[in-house]
Amino acid sequence: MGYRDINQNLAEIGVKEVAGECFFSPALVDYYNMVEMPSKKAMVIIPTYNEKETIEHLVRAILILHPDFYITVVDDNSPDGTGEIAAQMAQTYPHIHVIHRAQKSGLGTAYVAGFKYALAAGADYIFEMDADFSHDPASLADIFQPIDEYDLVLGSRYLNGVRVEGWRFRRLLLSKFANIYASYVMVLPIWDFTGGFRCYRREVLESIQLDRISSDGYAFQIEMLYYACRNGFHVKEVPIMFRERAHGYSKISRHVVREAFWLVLRFHAPMREIFNHLRYLSQDYDDFVASHPVTQKRPARGL
Ligand SMILES: Nc1nc2c(ncn2[C@@H]2O[C@H](COP(=O)(O)OP(=O)(O)OP(=O)(O)O)[C@@H](O)[C@H]2O)c(=O)[nH]1
Ligand SMILES: [Mg+2]
């Protein structure tokens, strides 16, 4: 498939060209040709609040790279009209669905609404993704690839280094420290707990009582991951690049940071385990991650 064919496809699915910008380079099209199509149903959940500059670009990018994917936008009645833009696309292309919520009710409940819809719609693989292009649609393929052998795949900013572009040092420090804190207090072999670019097998979501998830923002990501690990699922981290948003504004508040701090304490491991684990500070942390049951491949069990 060539660049022109893709634009033709876009016209057919009713996606308009956005003036002045063309996200799809010929190089990306070559990349697209290498991506394997999923035989099972994959759905990307995108929560939105005031993301009118990016939502259409993002949906286009995902569908060009993965025409078989389904996309569910969960919009909280964005004053800037993001919900209407998504609804317009949904009218012309059946792979797009929009959940309209009456008011801004937080990222956690938006994801829960999206997850419930995805399960009801029969999705086998459910992605989380931000609408602001901090998550590169080209990385969907990298996150999708290991799902054959694992139950939950995390796009990770902190595996084998730090891949964050555009943050002030203070913000990076806070995020990195929060992840070290979570790993040592919960004693879990994860480098990036708080990232929101993931792929769950449906069994993972089915095993979690979604209505009991109480948190938002960073804490929501930590809580979901905690339950997945506790329920015995197998987790893989793959490196992704994270880019600070170029449009719109952040919805993250101080409250979200405090919430994550207390949530991690609530899920703390037994004190003896924490103490033993601290010894890894002077050893190779990679060994701890590689040998933990959570990071092993899932036993073959169909799907
Ligand atoms: N539906 C819904 N979506 C939300 C809400 N809060 C944030 N989002 C969306 O969730 C995604 C992540 O939120 P961001 O504000 O980008 O948070 P962040 O990525 O941690 O921080 P920045 O990139 O600095 O803005 C974006 O797509 C937002 O539009 C909400 O209350 N409801
Ligand atoms: Mg963001």
> Low-confidence segments, ≥5 residues, pLDDT <50?
13-37
Q: So what's the CATH class?
A: Alpha Beta
Q: Report the sheet with the most strands, covering strand number, pairing sense and barrel closure.
A: 7 strands, mixed
Per CATH, the architecture is Alpha-Beta Complex
Structural class given helices, strands, pairing? alpha/beta
Structure in words:
This protein has helices at residues 3-12, 26-34, 55-65, 82-92, 107-120, 140-144, 169-186, 202-207, 217-230, 254-266, 271-278, 285-291, and strands at 42-48, 70-75, 96-100, 125-128, 152-156, 164-165, 198-201, 235-239, 242-243. It has a seven-stranded mixed β-sheet, with helices on both faces. The protein has a two-stranded parallel ribbon with strand order 6-9. The chain has a single domain, classed as Spore Coat Polysaccharide Biosynthesis Protein SpsA, Chain A (Alpha-Beta Complex). The two termini are 30 Å apart. The protein is α/β, with parallel strands linked by helices and 303 residues long. The structure holds guanosine-5'-triphosphate and magnesium ion. Magnesium ion (MG) is lined by residues 130, 132, 134, 245.
